[in-house]
Design brief:
Shape: globular
Largest sheet: 7 strands, mixed
Helix content: 25-40%
Bound molecules: NADP nicotinamide-adenine-dinucleotide phosphate
Structural class: alpha/beta
Strand order of the largest sheet: 3-2-1-6-5-4-17
């Protein structure tokens, strides 16, 4: 593995030439770097805005933060960890795993921390990308791989009076280190995947807590246990044990796609299980009524918790139905018009998922601006390539999200696809590869067609849909189908320009 030798160096023009420039050091960016490293390609750099790796698992540090996909599935297939402590690992353990992968595959020397990619411009004359950072770096790369993740720009809703609040304000994705709500009066807003994890943790310590719920979630029990040393030993030493376990997890999760996509009515049976879970966890009939969703399960992300309902049943916890009317200097007013005085407001109100690019400007062939192209709604081929933007490869791009299985599976599928392009560019003599417009159009037409009639299209409002009601986030179906498609590199789908890149790049302004 890499020893840090042959690290990319700046040329006389202050530009660093690399083969691949990867933006983001979460699971996707690291997975891409490891694939290059394994292929013996060392001319790459990973730029990371923060000071450590882990992506969403570095940023989300709220108490109770964990993954609701089992860790033996939510981990790289090529980097098994027989020592996961329990079925669903907590954030610190997952973050540690990403750090261990960096060490294990020797990619550390090529990660630059505190570097925020601000612009990327395709230079047609040379067939390269000029990538710049907010810190003033300039990289020239044959391929540019934004691996930014959709869940990193958190949002505070525009609630009147928010700026007047005199207490503490916190967001699940920007947690004040060590804050656990001890002895405080707290209001929480939102009851999504993040909130149902921090609500039970805060409820243990808060003096009083008001949970503002606009829309109840479907919540299923979490079947989990701490792994016994015998299981750890089996995962480590018994040939095939860990692999078979992972396969079992994969196929039980994959089975859900059948209900989500093809037969939403199958979810009615699972709804009954969720109602039983609710009735077991919450005794108060009024609270039970308030917590029962009135939309089809799966339309919003299905949540899993054994602690959420019992927390809502605690004496010190009050469930407030409806949205928030306003925030005042000393508290928060719900739709019922009642002011609840609080010391802290905790937002579990999610992320801006549809603005894929944020402040990052990407300019392709003929100066095409990707932000303009995606203004209405984002779309790509296999969530990865975009017409007009040669040698650009998004990871976890449009319509690659999942409601039913592990994102790591999708990431590995995309990385495998990119590696086919890499081979064509490096050994196959191609200078640029650009997906054809008709391929992107056909692919997305089919995809939107498939999304029609799925559970996500059953009438609820969710972050899966953009402001036009178009689903630009989810892959609608089996993940093995995505993998099979991504494994194929059909040259007829791409405009391929042959020839080596121009050795001495023409300088362009980023
Ligand atoms: P989210 O699912 O978007 O939930 C946001 C919550 O805030 C919803 O309950 C929403 O209510 C509420 N909300 C938003 N604006 C509001 C307003 N103005 N007034 C009152 N309520 C408001 O966000 P999230 O919980 O952070 O989760 C985002 C995604 O992160 C998840 O879907 C999942 O993909 C990922 N995640 C995963 C895990 C995991 O275990 N793997 C854990 C945490 C997060 P409405 O429903 O009424 O809009």
């Amino acid at each position: 593995m890499s020893d840090g030798s042959s690290l990319p160096r700046q040329d006389a023009h202050g530009e660093t030439e690399v083969f691949a420039l990867i933006a983001g050091a979460g699971f996707a960016g690291l997975g891409m770097a490891i694939a290059l490293e394994k292929a013996g390609i060392r001319e790459y750099v990973v730029l990371e805005k923060a000071d450590s790796v882990g992506g969403t698992w570095r940023e989300n540090t709220y108490p109770g933060c964990a993954c609701d996909v089992p860790s033996h599935l939510y981990s790289y297939s090529f980097a098994p960890n027989p020592n996961w402590s329990s079925t669903y690992s907590t954030q610190p353990e997952i973050r540690r795993y990403t750090e261990e992968c960096v060490a294990r595959f020797g990619i550390g020397p090529r990660i630059r921390f505190g570097r925020t990619v601000s612009g990327a411009t395709f230079d047609e004359a040379t067939g390269t990308w000029l990538v710049t950072t907010e810190q003033g770096d300039r990289y020239r790369a044959r391929i540019f791989v934004p691996a930014l993740g959709p869940l990193h720009r958190f949002t505070f809703p525009a609630i009147p009076g928010l700026e007047t609040f005199r207490g503490k304000i916190m967001h699940s994705a920007a947690w004040q280190e060590g804050y656990d709500g001890s002895g405080e009066r707290i209001a929480t807003i939102g009851t999504g995947a993040s909130a149902i994890q921090f609500i039970p943790a805060l409820a243990k310590k808060a003096a009083r807590m008001h949970v503002f719920q606009r829309t109840p979630a479907w919540v299923l029990p979490r079947i989990e246990h701490d792994y016994h040393p015998v299981e750890h030993a089996a995962f480590e030493k018994v040939p095939g044990a860990r692999f078979l376990y992972r396969q079992g997890l994969y196929w039980t999760h994959e089975f859900r796609a059948l209900a989500f996509t093809y037969h939403p009515k199958l979810l009615a049976a699972v709804e009954k299980l969720a109602v039983m879970h609710l009735e077991r966890g919450v005794k108060d009939p009024a609270k039970r009524r308030a917590l029962r969703p009135d939309y089809r399960m799966g339309c919003k992300r299905i949540l899993m918790s054994n602690t959420y309902y019992p927390a809502l049943g605690q004496e010190n916890v009050d469930l407030v139905r409806g949205g928030v009317r306003e925030i005042r200097p000393n508290g928060i007013v719900g739709e019922d018009g009642v002011l609840r005085e609080v010391d802290t407001i905790v937002f579990g109100t999610g992320f801006d998922v549809h603005d894929y690019l944020g402040r990052l400007s990407i300019r392709g062939r003929d100066g095409a601006d990707l932000a303009d192209r995606w203004r209405e709604s984002a779309e790509a081929y296999l969530g990865t390539t975009v017409n007009g933007f040669p040698n650009l490869y998004f990871l976890v791009g449009p319509n690659t999200g999942l409601g039913h299985n592990s994102m790591i599976f999708m990431i590995e599928s995309q990385v495998a696809h990119v590696m086919k392009h890499v081979a064509r560019l490096r050994e196959g003599g191609a200078r640029t590869i650009e997906v054809k417009a008709a391929v992107v159009d056909d692919y997305n037409r089919d995809l939107q067609e498939q999304l029609r009639g799925t559970v996500w299209d059953s009438g609820c409002s969710s972050w899966y849909l953009d402001t036009n009601g178009r689903n630009a986030t989810l892959w609608p179906g089996f993940t093995f189908v995505f993998r099979r498609r991504a494994a194929r590199f059909d040259e007829r789908e791409f405009e391929i320009r042959e020839g080596a890149p121009v050795a001495a790049p023409t300088r362009v302004r980023a």
